[in-house]
Amino acid sequence: MSGAPAALASGTVRRVNGPVVDVVGLDGVAMFDVVAIGEAGLAGEIVSIDGDVATAQVYEYDGGVAPGDRVTSRGEQLSITLGPGLLGHVFDGILRPLEPEVVWLAAGRSDNPAADTTRHFTPAASVGEHLTGGALLGRVTEGEHFEHRVLVPPGIEGILTQLAPESDARADQPIARVGDVDVSMSHRWPVRVPRPARARDREPRLLRTGQRVLDLLYPIVRGSSASVPGGFGTGKTLLQQQIAKWCDAEVIVYVGCGERGNEMIDVLDDLAQLSDPRTGGPLRERTVCIANTSNMPVMAREASIYTGVAVAEYFRDMGYDVVVIADSTSRWAEALREFASRTNQLPAEEGYPATLASALAAFYERAGSFTTLGGSRGSVTIIGAVSPPGGDLTEPVTAQTRRFVRCVWSLDRDLAYARHYPAVSWNESFSRDSDAIAGVRSAAGDTQWAERRALALALLAEAERLESLVELVGAAALPDRQRVMLRSAKLLKESVLQQDAMSDADAYCGEAKQQALLEMILAIHERFLELVDHGVSAERLDELDLARVSAARESGGAEDVAAVTAIRDSALATLKAIG
Amino acid sequence: MIDEIPVEYTGARSVGGPLLIVQDVSGVGWDEDATITLDTGEQRHGVVLDVSDDLAVVQVFEGTSGISLDKVRVAFSGTPMRVPVGPQWLGRVCNGRGEPIDGGPPVRGDHLVAVNGVPINPAARQLPRDPIVTGISAIDGLTTLVRGQKLPIFSVGGLPHLELAAQIAAQARVADGAFQIVFAAMGVTHADADATRDVLEERSESGDLALFINTASDPVVERVLTPRLALTVAEHLAFERGGHVLVLMCDMTSYAEAVREVSAARGEVPGRQGYPGYLFSDLASLYERCGRLQVSPGSLTQIPVLTMPAGDITHPVPDLTGYITEGQIVLSQEMQSRNVYPPFDALSSLSRLMRHGVGRDLTRADHMAVSGQVYAALSHARQVRELTDLVGESGLGEGDRAYLRFADALETGFVNQGRSEGRSIDDSLERAWTALTLLPVGDLSRLDPDDLARHLALQLPASEAAP
After folding, report:
1. Inter-chain contact B269–A344, Cβ cutoff 8 Å?
2. Whole-number pLDDT of residue A110
3. Looking at beta carbons, which residues of chain A come within 8 Å of B148?
């Protein structure tokens, strides 16, 4: 990262097979070095070396590249420039800016983010201090509210001998001198290398998604990892977008990896229009979008998830909680497979390379809550969508991912067909963070949290069993006690688990209102059972109009507990009148 | 299509399947366009799939039949394959390579553009909005096609998907601006091709339609080219000339089979069902060539049509298509056997972008509510029908019986329509209302109460007249 690279090696193209290019004569080239191919200088990355033949994957359309064309090593691994100017903008898979003025993404674009933009730098260190990597040098305000902390890059250490005064400066110009190294507001970082931190932090902290089914049943802590498997049409992207919009992280990195262009612009438009409930600014100002849609070069898709997580780690190092949304990791795995196939690697499961499982594991391990080099606390939470072919949850990417994540939010096609959104299945989903969260809740005074969750899950499981019975014998054949269980489960689904992403009142649900809704259903359920035990027929209870209970989630605002309480009291009063 | 021929290589090293391997080449780049000349003087077209030292692997679009190793001559153009673009394609009928089969002169355009296209910057896109009215009630009413969307038709062999595609091509329209159709048929029989040409004749004569036909007897590998040709022509009409363009591509399963054939000939490691591992990227490189741009008033909308082998929606072609497109229209054998045209399976069909294309000022204020109510009722009707199979219709309550009547009325009055009948949005929605008013009024919670009262009043004389 520092010092001038030695003389750069150059060689010639020997073979071109789509995005895979074999090069000979690149003396001293190392794995993952970036090369420039042909006259246009197309970016590629060395991914295997065999004798004097080095194989590169190319991040651009490489039509016209011919054997004999010149290839130059750039002497560094695939690296990105990290600094102010990332938030609120859109980039491709190797962090080249996608400004809306450029319509067609032809090959050979420049990879220099707007370095000539000046930023207002405010120093926060004193000359003469001994600083190490991660130490705070100063601050830049991005957008209206975001405090971008300029840190000493990892690996640099020494006495601070110079520091710029409060001034406007270019991001690529030195603002400080630490030891004998000039430090600017931005620095380069190789995307495949995890950024160092001091230690993993074991104290669980909640990540609130604002989505009831997740926060109540399958909750997640900051620094954890989740996988969202779901066939097409199950609402995977919509759920991911909801989390990107409403979760209480400070920075979101949204990686559109091999997905639809129209969806990407939909996210961008929404983020620009919605405002952040915490700061009042547009949500887009806390978001970095990395868009490598399905028709953009396939190998840049492979790099895009690493780019995303490196950007997330950069903000983590400032002491922020960051969520990486990767939609979809299956497309990334397919890029691995495509490359494996073009280089005639021996395939493992379904044509995927044998390295798939270890690559997935290594990627999800970059999630975590850390004490940063600078001593503050920051986290990276990774939420990855998986698109199983044919909805088959046993296929390699889905099955392997399940091994390495803390939460699985599995989307169910039957629920989606029944227009039950978010279609998070209670059979296939799990959260290994729920015990830790029960502890946090309990310490915060809510000792009943785990019990309510267990009651809700038990009710859903029992209802599932009863529904398969009903399909055989009809509801009328069930004992009354079981019939009211079905009714309660239906209420639980309609008024708690379902959430309308298109409704202003319901798209996001505050924590207290979530609890109030669940408590309401459990109270009604308890009352149902009491009534049945006292001889009230299930038929009579079925005839009760509880439409207001089902609609309670839409009543009032996202935080409006009073509206829910009023509906609960009136429903319980109605039930009391029956008894 | 070739301006000048630089160097011609004589002789080839091997030939097999659709591939020709040329030796001793120099300076030939990947994805370059090639012209192959046979000893008979016949010229064919190809593209470089792989180039290694002095060997180039050329995929020949017209097939390799009749090519002999020592007599064949191959020239490389130095550029990727390009086609002339411009409005000159409109009104013309061409084969799958873009050569006229309507007796007219070769199509000349304004300038040449690479058939593989260039990816659109996602940040330069504009969200699809505004409807395209297809005149098909089921589609317009329940799965509205939005300008800039890609909405495939999933069908099964033997169902009238080609007829439906042709009918949409013949009668679709937009409320404002120029509207053009590009129709690409791949692997269709001669009889189907002729029938399609007949249906589209009027639109073609009025100069609003470009037609590319690759028949089942045409070279298989040509099908790899046909959709790219169609989309390149369409992109120019939409984004350079600002028109609203609808591209129909039928049958994408034939296209994918051609891709598989090339892959197999190259000895690539197969993925699912022998399709290459890059089928997703390959299909995406076609389907993503649609949308709207911030800098252009035009739009490019796609209806890819595909047949699901053995009706299997998890087959790689429909499965990967579903992951890229924005919804799907599913045709079912069951509806066909009840003699409903189009055999539209509502509960499996979905237009993800519908909400951007309907409502006040776009179609009608009640559109979203009507479609939501129809879906909810159909879903319940299906449950009732399953129950009926167990307990018989006599075991049903009056409310449930109403759902069966609703489902029948929707099928006959709304979904079913003539093969040359184009309906207005108003007509389609009113037909849906007629079926909905058969349901218990208390169940129609998604509809606006005033709208409901008005429609019930309209229905009253009819129901009184009934015995």
Report:
1. yes
2. 65
3. 262
